[in-house]
Amino acid sequence: MINNRNIISILILIILLTGCSDQRILEKVGFTHSVAYDLGSEGQLKSAISVPVSNPDIKTNRIFLKTESKSSKGGRINLNKQTSLTLVSGQLRLALFGQSIASKEGLRNNLDTLMRDPSIGDRINIIIVNGDAGNLLEKNFKQFPPTGKYIDRLIHKESAGQSIPNTTLYTFTRDYYDDGIDPIAPMIKDAGESIRVDGVALFKDDKVVGKIKPQDLMIFAFLRGNLQQGELDFDLSNDTQESQSLTLTAISSKKKVHVTYDDNQMKVMIHVNVLASATEYIGELKLSDNADRRKLEQEISEITTQRAQQVIKYLQEKKADSLGIGTYVRNSMPYSNWSKLNWHDQYPLVNIECHMHIKITDYGFLR
């Protein structure tokens, strides 16, 4: 019995000592939350990281480090030499890429490095910065949390509203290697005292070739997939005589794509049906009147259809198949025919038409 008690006491002591050892180790570890990449001088890579800290001996709530190197791994070695902490990537949440590197060098090499690191999960967010990513990450915004966490919360809030995509390391690389679609990523910018969503970056292969402007984000979202929520504002003052403005909320949409061939000419038809609630309307029409409501629905359907056609035309000009039209074309033919089709050359020439129909399901009541 005594021997058993001694053994149990020794095991408990070992566990307690092990816990103390782990505690001392954790105090020496820096868990990288955000990383930023930009194009440096003479082809160098500018790397920057943000590391949250809760050490009472350190006055700030995070450590910001930056360096220049030939590669991201070389940059990590240089960054490690700047701090007493051992930097690890297991808690990495954001990878920011400045406009310079995203449009000139592309993202492939740095994403490949992230993918090969077993400590990094594939759910980290990929974000494009309209400007210098390192400078944005370094800046402190007084009214908001540390910049890395601020960006993280901003992106998750906006993507939950489905106005921008939730682009992760997994989804980006998946679309990059898919021959029927090109990747996209949210774009942000420094707005002085805050950070703003600046649209959606469009890619051809791994390079940014254009962007969807903020005012067209919901139109782009309609064309890209089915929505379960969202908001849309209309300035109707220049398009109709009876109406000035309209705000739609509680939006849901369903998209259907049909690929047809007439005399060997490919045609793609996109049909989008939208249901929404009118929460604000300024104009002479009465939404409680069925005829007036149908007239308004027809007007805003035509407006959104025109805007959608402009977005499609812009995508074709940039040769960015961000809507995944190629996946529908690929599914409409034998794969042997698809493999012979040079889709990236064919895509800008395809006749793509869009028809949008918006139905107002709820318009409130007057008290």
TrEMBL record:
Residues of the Spore germination GerAC-like C-terminal domain: 198-364
Residues annotated as domain Spore germination protein N-terminal: 22-189
Presence of the UniProt keyword Transmembrane helix in the record: no
Keywords, sorted A to Z: Germination, Lipoprotein, Membrane, Palmitate, Signal
Tree of life domain: Bacteria
GO cellular component, one term: membrane
Keyword hit for Signal: yes
One of the GO biological process terms: spore germination
A Pfam family this chain is assigned to: Spore_GerAC_N
Coiled coil ranges: none
Subcellular location: Membrane
Membrane-protein topology: Lipid-anchor
PANTHER family reported for this sequence: SPORE GERMINATION PROTEIN B3
UniProt-listed NCBIfam families: spore_ger_x_C
Sequence similarity: Belongs to the GerABKC lipoprotein family.
Protein's name according to its UniProt entry: Uncharacterized protein
